[in-house]
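COURSE: Structural Biology Practicum
ASSIGNMENT: Worksheet 4, Part C
STUDENT ID: 0417
INSTRUCTIONS: Below are two proteins. For each, the amino acid sequence is given first, followed by its structure token string. Answer the questions at the end about the second protein only.

PROTEIN I
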Amino acid sequence: MEHLPFKTGIITGSLRRDSFSLKMAHCVMKLYPSFMYELISLCDLTLYNEDLETDTPPEGWKNFRESVKDQDAILFITPEYNRSVPAVLKNAIDIGSAPHGRNVFNRKPTAVISLSPGKMGAFGANHHLRQSLVFLNMPVMQQPEAYLGESGKLIGGDGMIANQVTEDFLRGFMEEFQKWVALHSSAEKY
């Protein structure tokens, strides 16, 4: 059952207050307001430890799981650390997919934007993250792919995208993501 606007959680792969990923999340929300966005914080997530998976798991885990569960779709915006995703993002994926049989990411349409100060646009992190998302049973948008290099130059002092080419690309990316979410949304999330 299609309904607009879709509730879309944005998970950024960085804890830094002034991170490029968080700045890009804010740009995307302003640039493409057709979704109802929620920034889902990773700041309160302790490291996943199955011993803590009791009737009263850590409060940060409960809040994170509820936030993800409440979304129609998830947009990941991540930097790259050592050709992979940051540990905080992998930890969030582990928390959200546990305990076995209660994966809050299950069947939620998703897309990935990766960015880095270098020219490769966090290509390694983007593809490494996609591997995990497939295992989580999330329909991952295949095209267009979003690898944004030289992230320090992409966002201007006004908090908006600093060049028209990138702005046009991101607007097109989000239009395709909206179609992707509509295609994969269903009333039944099992």
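PROTEIN II
(use this one for the questions)
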Amino acid sequence: MADLKFSISFSLATQLDMLKAVNKQVFPLLHQAVNAVGQATAASWMQSVYKAKLWSGEADAYAQSIKWTMTGDFTGEVVSNYKYAAEIENGRPARDLKQMLNTSLKVRVNAKGSRYLYIPMRHNTPGNNALGAAMPQSVYDIAQTLAASMVTGQTSRVSGLNAMDIDTHEFLTTPQNTYSWGDKLVTGLAGGNNYNNMYRFGADSGDSKSSVYLTFRTMSEKSKGWIIPPQPGQHIAEGVSTAMAPKAQMAFAEAIKRTLKN
């Protein structure tokens, strides 16, 4: 779990000779300063998450997990319990996506007994790159004229994992969509092979008209690639902590100064 912790401790025994009485009633301004710094730190952490190189769903989940709590009259902590916070902060190891062939119920098996998956790849339209790079305008100009494909229903099939339900001893099944296929993008267009055989799916919602653009790639046991390289840590929390530390000390010193003047 990535976290930012602020702990403020001090001793006024030599000046006031009343250490046990030092609490938020005696130093209300310091108590307020700690709370204000904690809230500001949480807000800064959230803002930094949204500025980081994260896809929108991950950024939302990470930012919404950030919480500030007071742990004492003059102490508090800002924490995140997002399950991927440590990976984002400290770095992610390389991942072999073909490991899904060992676990996904959607696995299929060909005539030779080799396992494979169809992987839908979504392509963003120009101006919408929150989840990745957008397709070139030249590709989009053609893609949006394609006759739409659509999902017409859903059936089920036996999973290629060859796994059984422990209670019924029947082979596990997985849902399977049925499609009405429209046009697909022809090969050889500018933009490279990423857009070969791309389909347009209607994604209308009420009066709002929109489309989703997908290609379907096959990942098999013999496929090359499908390795996500290691990702360096982004150290978002560390950066926020470093930036806030001098501001916090100034706020706490000023609160103590004002209190002792009264």
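ANSWER KEY EXCERPT:
Q1: The mean pLDDT is 84.
Q2: Residues 3-91+231-261 form one domain.
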